[in-house]
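Dear colleagues,

As part of the handover before I leave the project, I'm documenting each prediction I ran so the next person doesn't have to rerun anything. This entry is a single chain, and its sequence is reproduced below.
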Amino acid sequence: MKEIPVTVGICAYNEEGNIERSIRSVYQQKYENVSVSEVIVISSGSTDGTDEIVRGMLDEYPNLRFIPQEKREGKNSAINLLLDKKSTEIVILLNADNTLCDESTISNLVRPFFNDKVGIVGGRPIPTNTKDTLAGFASNMLWTLHHRVSLLHPKIGELVAFRDIGTRLPMKSQSDEDLLRMNLERKGYQSIYAPDAIIRNRGPETLRDFIKQRTRVNIGERYMKREFDYDIPTWDKGLLFSAVLDSLRDLGFHPIKISLTVAMEMYARMKASSYVRSDKGDMGVWDPVSSTKKL
C-alpha cells in the first residue's frame, strides 16, 4: 500500500512549557503507510521562550520548519499561514499544549484517507487531570462525552487531519476545526472519528477556568449556527442524552459531581447564547486559560 504524505502543523502562543514535548511526540511516532513531509510550527507573537526553544530544535530535525508571526492575530490566522506554506494535501493540526499519546496515533488518524471520500478525521483527547477534584472530574466528563458523542456522530476537535481544498478561515472567528469540517462536508466529503488516535491534553484546574473555557467554546459554536446554519453535534439533545448514559460506564456513578458539571455547562451555554444574541462579536483572539498549560 502506498504512503500518504502529510504535514503536521503546530500553532503556538507562549507555550514554552509544552512546545518541546509536543514536537518530540511527533518524531517519536512509528509510521505505517504515512510519511511526514514536514512539521511546521507557527508561533503567533509569542513573548516567552517558545521561539527560542523551537529554533534550538531545527538542527535536530531536518524537516522541522519554524514560521514566527510578529503579531498575535488568532489561531485562524496561524492556520491560514500554515495552509499557505505547507506542501501536502493532507494536514494534521496538533495544539502546542497537547502531546500524541502513543506511537501509532498519527497512523491511526491518517489511515481513513485511503478512502478518497474522507475529508476530515478527528482523534480522541484524553485529559491528564485527576478525577478527584470537581474541575478535574468536569474535564474528564467533558471529554468522555465528546468521545461518546463522536462514536455516534463525529465531533472533530483538538487533534484533526483534513484535506486542504482551498478553505481559508475568517480571521474574526474562533472556530477552526468546525469551519474546516463544514466546508468539506458541503463539498461532499465525509467526517470520521478515529478513537484510536489518542492525544493527551489538560483541562482547566479551577471552576472559574472551566466556565471561562466552556463559555468561549460555546460562543464560537453559537456563531457557527447563526452565521452558517451549521449544527454542532454536541448541541443535539438526543445525542447528549445517549452519551451521558454511556459515559456513566466510563466515569462511574458520581451524582454530585455529574450534576455540578452539567450545571456549569448549562450556565456556560446560557452565557454564550446571551453573548451571541447581544451581537458582541466572535472572539478571534482569546485570553488563554492558564491552568490548561500544565500538561
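DSSP finds nine helices and eight strands in the chain. The two ends are 36 Å apart (CA to CA).

All the best with the project,
I.
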